[in-house]
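Example 3.2
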Amino acid sequence: MKHNTLHSTAFAVLAAFAAAGAFAAGNHAGGHGHGDAEAAIGQPGEAAKATRTINVDMTDGMRFTPADIKVKQGETVRFVVKNSGQLKHELVLGTEKELKEHYEAMKKNPEMEHADPNMVTLAAGKSGEIVWQFTKAGKVDFACLQPGHYDAGMKGAVTVAKTAAAK
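Structure, written as tokens:
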């Protein structure tokens, strides 16, 4: 990874978007662990506590397979994500609002490199994983935020079913 001026500038732009409310809560330092957006989608999970593995394939047809995933509230899932295409793709978990805001930042800075626990970015033919705990019932969106991919329909959703005694 290059640590050049462009990378630093791109990181600063992403940080500014995050501070504006896309990813952070506001007045807590960095917003981690306290943000409404993070609470809405869950939290990073521990691999040892994953109750199941879901394989997700990304293609140059701008689709995820599967695009509709069902989990239970409190469940920790290990997503094994494979890029079967020739283009760079990513899977980013988030609310629809934060995904759209992040996508706009990516369109302005397409070479932006970043890594967060709710995302995996993969070169052609590569695989990676996200371990995530779904703490709140409802819908968690996911999308590829590479420029043009979201607009082409590369998105999906995780439906989180409410449980009587969420762990």
